[in-house]
Amino acid sequence: MDFPLNVHRGSVRKHLIDKMQVRKHDFSRDEYFRALDDVNLEIKHGERLGILGLNGAGKTTLLKVIAGIFFPTGGEVAIEGKVDSFLNPSIGTRDDATGYENIISQLLYKGCSMKTINALIPEIIEFSELEDFIHLPVQKYSTGMRTRLNFSVTTSMTPDILILDEWLSAGDFEFVRKAQDRMKRIADQSRILVLASHNMNLISSVCNVAIVLLDGQIVKYSSPKEAIDFYTKGGQAK
Domain map of the chain by residue range? Predict the structure, then answer.
């Protein structure tokens, strides 16, 4: 996954698409930053993959490639099953729309019918604890309220493949506790879980396989215990 350097932030996506349409590998390394390099990974049914790495190692980029948010500039990604992700509390949110309208639009984007949406809405509102604010524009929401809304929508159904960047940490203690309980249940029910985190205890307790990323490359692919030992004992340094 290559990102262009010295390109205006708003035009990065267009620049990448234009470059890919001309010739996939027609670039100078001085013009691009390689965020992922020769990543070869197969995630099988029943696996809970933990991703470890220092900041800037490529963890979030890899998650976004798997989630289909980024298209790789080289190689290919093959996905079998429905993918859902919780990577950023603001992704998919329209500030000018109400919380209620955002629930509908996000579920429509996920491919739900209005019959399914109408059945899910009451539980989503109740779980988010936004009953008194659900008909206000999201631009009036705090970061914690946005997180509760999007988390409640994202976790209202169990996907085949669930992708997480860290574990939910925003909100008051009680909401975080019940959100973690729900996430553990969904993680158990999903066919595949992919989790990037700096929390070693979380990786150890939730995942059954793990990788360590360094400079966009996989430098360890093993059990969570072996990956954590490798990472904490300096294995993140070449």
Answer: 1-34
